[in-house]
Amino acid sequence: MTALSALIRRDIRIALRVGGGALIGVLFFLTVVVLMPFAVGPDLALLSRLGPAILWLGALLASLLTLDRLFMADHEDGSLDLITMSRTPLELACAAKALAHWLAAGLPLIVATPVLGLLLNLDMVATGAVALTLLAGTPALTFTGMIGAGLAVTLHRGGLLMAVLVLPLSIPVLIFGVAASQAAIVGPMTFGAPFSILCALSLVSLVVGPFAAAASLRHGLD
Amino acid sequence: MSLIDLANPTRFLALTARVLPWLAGATVILLAIGLYQSAYAPDDYQQGATVKIMFIHVPNAWLSMFVWGVMSIASLGTLVWRHPLADVAAKAAAPIGASFTFLALLTGSLWGRPMWGTYWEWDARLTSVLILFLMYLGLMALWRAVDDPSRAARAAAVLTLVGAINLPIIKFSVDWWNTLHQPASVMRMGGSTLDKSFLIPLLLMAIGFTLLFVTLHLAAMRNEILRRRVRSLQMMQASRVAFSSEVGAGSRQENASTGAA
Question: Which ipTM did the prediction report?
Answer without folding.
Answer: 0.84
